Every structure is written in structure tokens, then in C-alpha cells.
Amino acid sequence: MVNGSIGSSIGLPKVSVVIPVYNAEDTVVDCIDSVLGQDFPDLEIVVVDDGSNDGSGILCDNCARRDSRVKVIHQKNKGRSAARGVGTIMSQAKWIGYVDSDDTLPKDAISRLYAKAIDDVDVVLGNGYKFSKGRRCPKISIKEFRHMVVRAEGPIGVPWGCLFRRSVLTSWVWDIPREINMGEDYVFWLRVIFQTRKPVNVIYEKVYDKGADTTCANFKWNAGYALAIHELRKGAIPEHLWATYMSDTISDRLVNLLDVACCQPCRLWRHSRFYMELKEDIGKYGYDVPLKTKLYLLLPSLWMRRMYSKLSDLKNKWI
After folding, report:
1. Residue partners of 107: CB distance under 8 A and separation at least 6
2. In whole angstroms, what is the distance from residue 276 CA to residue 270 CA?
3. 43-50, strands of its sheet edge to edge
4. pTM for the full predicted model
5. Which pLDDT tens digit goes with each residue over 304-315?
6. Residue 225's closest CA among 192, 188, 257?
7. Please, what is the end-to-end C-alpha distance for the chain in angstroms?
8. CA-only gyration radius of the chain, Å
């Protein structure tokens, strides 16, 4: 069911903002209002109520009634990626952005992003301040940016805080298995970035206000899940380019392995297909694994690895 006037060809908006919603009655109105309050009024908001069983759907409909730029789609629960995909299909603008229902936008976010949405780019990336210190290039070549995406650097790895040209948002980019609910945004980025040959414009200012991240906090990695992410990674990178990005895939797989090792005993991952393939690629391509990573993986017990991770997190906060 759809509330609002989707599909009109008259006066198309310059930007569409897609908001997937599931049981977010405490935050969704603030989220929508932050988009409606942008200093860039030429936009539409496509809200996809993904089978919420709280009051979210009613609140979204109320927002649509008070502002015609809001369109609401109600569907059975299909997962966040599927909801974003439906919202993308139902949107009208050439440039599309995404906002999660527990997040908000600074007042000038869309205007900053749209100012960089020019003909020679398909992607505008915001929140560039999250990159390592020293990187301030306003435009990054597609060759370099692809390496950055595979390594999931800085703000790369989430769809929000960006604008994407509609032409790179094919139905495939959001056709991600529903059971992939951690790392699905990384898969999305991989699929998008290998569909364009254009450079990427980067905004280094903050253009997104993130709410509480409960998915990362509650998720427990395992070797089988890490393997599933890697299979999707390989499916997104053209086969003839695998060797080109092997070092980057090893780097990101090591990050995944550290997560696995913090959640599973050694006996459950040391003989897994994920670990064995990673170990083989490290040897085959001569990848130099950091000493700290080697030492962490050699810790004999799960509680020791978890304690090491907590101490490292505290150290990073203090520094």
C-alpha cells in the first residue's frame, strides 16, 4: 500500500531520500523532520514501512499528510536491504540518498552533497573526515576508490551520508540475501562501485548524524558468516580483477577474522573454509600480516581475545 503521490512525471524532484523503517516509532518522526527541514527543498522522501508492528506506520502516514513531499510504502517485512531497494524503485529523482530511521541529517546535508553531484561523477561521498588524517582530496579516481571500497576505509561501507546517481542503482545492488544483516552495506558498495568508471567526489564535512547502532553491538560473527560475506565480495568484483584487489580482500578478511576470533573458540574457526582460504591467499600472494594481528590470533582462549579487544577499544578512545 502506498500513501502519497508516487509516479508523477511533472516537476520531478532533484533528490530522492529513501528511509527504510521497521519498528522505529521513537525516532522516525525526528528522522523524517530532519529531511523535511533541509535548506534544499527540491526533494522527495520515500519511506518504506517494512512490516512494522508498532506505531511506525501510522506516524509515517501522518508525516505524509502534512507534507506532500513524503510518500509512504507499506509492505510485509522483507529486511532493510529489500526495503531500500523498493524505495529506490519507487523514487523519482536522478540522485538518491539513504537515511536510516533512527538517524537524522544536519540542515545543510543535502545541499552540500548535491553541490558535488555533477556530470562527471556517479557517487558523492560525505563524512570524509572519517578517513585517516592527511587525506583531503576532493575527487578520488575510480581506480583508487575501488581499492578503498574493498578495504572498507573510513566512511565507506554504509550507504547513508552519500548521493548516488540512479543509473548505478540497479535492482542487483540491493538484491542481497535477507540473512545477511551485517555487512550488507559493504556488499552494496562493492556492487555499486564496479558499475561506474567515474571518479568520486568527497565532502569532508559531517553530513549525517548517526543514532544508536544496535546491529553492530549485538551481532556475533562466526566463520560461516564471514565466508558468506566473502562469497558476495567475490561475486561483486569482476573475476578478471580478483588478483588486482586480492591484497585489499585479504586486509578486509583479516578484519572479519578478528571479529570471528572474538566471538568463537579457536576450534570452531581454525579449520573452517573461511580461515583456510584466507591462509592460502596470504601465502600465495605474500601478504604481510601485521604483528599485532598475529599475536591476537595466537591467544589461546576466547576470554583472552575478548579482553585484548576491550583494552584496545579503551586505548583507541583515550588516544
Report:
1. 34, 37, 38, 39
2. 7
3. 2-3, 70-75, 43-50, 15-21, 95-98, 162-165, 123-125, 200-202, 139-140
4. 0.90
5. 888 887 776 643
6. 257
7. 50
8. 21
